[in-house]
Specification:
By secondary structure, the chain is mainly alpha-helical. Helix 1 (5-38) packs antiparallel against helix 2 (47-80). It is built from three helices and no strands. The chain has helices at residues 5-38, 47-80, 90-94. The chain has one domain (5-79). The chain is elongated and about 55 Å long.
Length: 96
């Protein structure tokens, strides 16, 4: 549960950052797949091929989002539990 304005800001910054990374990864993955793997424009592909490209790009974006969000979750948890007073001190408390 979020208790202070700082918690709300931290939650919004974390959520917004991860969402932007995932969206950007998805869009770049779609472009890369069509240009480098399919060697066609989207309009020239069948519906099944477009669905496959979308699923592969979404899987890639989810994997990148997981890699990005795990360390950020550790930072947020450490700050929330007040093990650290600032983000700069988190490294000392998260790392064993």
């Amino acid at each position: 549960m979020l208790h202070t304005v700082n918690d709300i800001y931290a939650f919004l910054i974390f959520g917004l950052t991860v969402s932007m990374v995932m969206f950007s990864t998805f869009e770049h993955s779609v472009d890369l797949i069509y240009k480098k793997i399919m060697h066609r424009r989207k309009e020239d592909c069948s519906t099944a091929q477009q669905l496959g490209v979308t699923c592969l790009a979404a899987y890639t974006a989810g994997a990148v989002g997981t890699v990005i969000s795990n360390p950020a979750d550790n930072v947020m948890t450490s700050l929330y539990k007040k093990k650290a007073e600032s983000a700069m001190q988190v490294g000392f408390h998260v790392m064993p």
